Amino acid sequence: MKVGDSKSRSAAGSAASRAYGGTAKTGTAGAAQGAADAAGGRVVTDTASIMGVPETELTPAVRSALMTLMGEVAELRRELDGVKTRLREAEQLADHDPLVPLLNRRAFVRELARVLSYGQRHGEPAGLVYIDLDRFKSLNDAHGHAAGDEALRHIAHLILSQVRESDLVGRLGGDEFGIIMMRADEAAARHKAQQIVEQITRNPVKLNGVAIDLGASAGAVGLTGSEDPEEALKQADLAMYEIKKSG
């Protein structure tokens, strides 16, 4: 029997009602409770009653109809659980960059807004780091996009190896990355920015056995919670360009 077979469910319900000898109110309540039990994942095996109906009042046909109905409700619950799982997986895919294991820009900005809101309500400082690779375009032009993709994955893993569990890392576009640091002031964010730049310098990308130093510039700002997310990113971006211009 198909899960969506409304005629079969109707027949099962009618059979259950007849088992009460016309006490339709009691039969409806019993069926509703049984459906709730099945929906909750509980398979009724009580030999004294089924869906609240005394077994002595059940004919074999009614018993079979009720058990079929209970099975259909349980199957519907399993299908619903499967849909919920697929929705969670879709949400995760929508939040992550397709190339590297980081948040995409949309998700990063959303999380930044949450951190700013939390900081404003609770007086918690936060830091924002903005990283830009110095020679990524040259690598892409000389070695191709596949090499560029490999370089971005290498940089993403380097950044992840240097952050705390509570930090949020995202790819903001092209060769630009961001880090949101909760419970961190501007000094801590600047220290983290410098630390990551040093790691990128010490760990060049290797392509066909050849080490290629991409280099990076990173700026950092402190956040109080009063900033707009895009404005905060702009401030961190400007701080990064000041570092890049200074050499």
From TrEMBL:
Residues 9-28 have a biased composition (Low complexity). This is Diguanylate cyclase. It holds the Pfam family GGDEF. Residues 66-93 form a coiled coil. The keyword Membrane does not apply. Residues 124-247 form the GGDEF domain. It comes from the Bacteria. InterPro entries: DGC-Regulatory_Protein, GGDEF_dom, Nucleotide_cyclase, Rev_trsase/Diguanyl_cyclase. Residues 1-28 are annotated as: Disordered. The lineage of its organism: Bacteria, Pseudomonadati, Pseudomonadota, Alphaproteobacteria, Hyphomicrobiales. Keywords: Coiled coil.
